[in-house]
Amino acid sequence: MPSSAPELRRVTVLSGGVGGARFVQGLLYGLRSGVVPGGSADTEVTVVTNTADDWWVHGLKVCPDLDTVMYTLGDGIDVERGWGRREETWSARTELEAYGVEPTWFGLGDRDIATHLVRTQMLEAGFTLSQVTEALCRRWLTPAHGTRVRLLPMSDDRVETHVAIADPDTPSGRRVVHFQEYWVRLRASVPAEAVVVVGQDAATPAPGVLEAIAETDLVVLPPSNPVVSVGTILGVPGVRDAVRATRAPVVGVSPIVGGSHVHGMAAQMLTSIGVEVSAAGVGRHYGARSSGGVLDGWLVDERDAAQLPRLEEAGVRARAVPLMMSDHDATAAMAAAAVSLAWPA
Ligand code: GDP
Ligand code: CA
Question: Looking at ligand 1, which residue's alpha carbon is closest to its atom 14?
Answer without folding.
Answer: 266
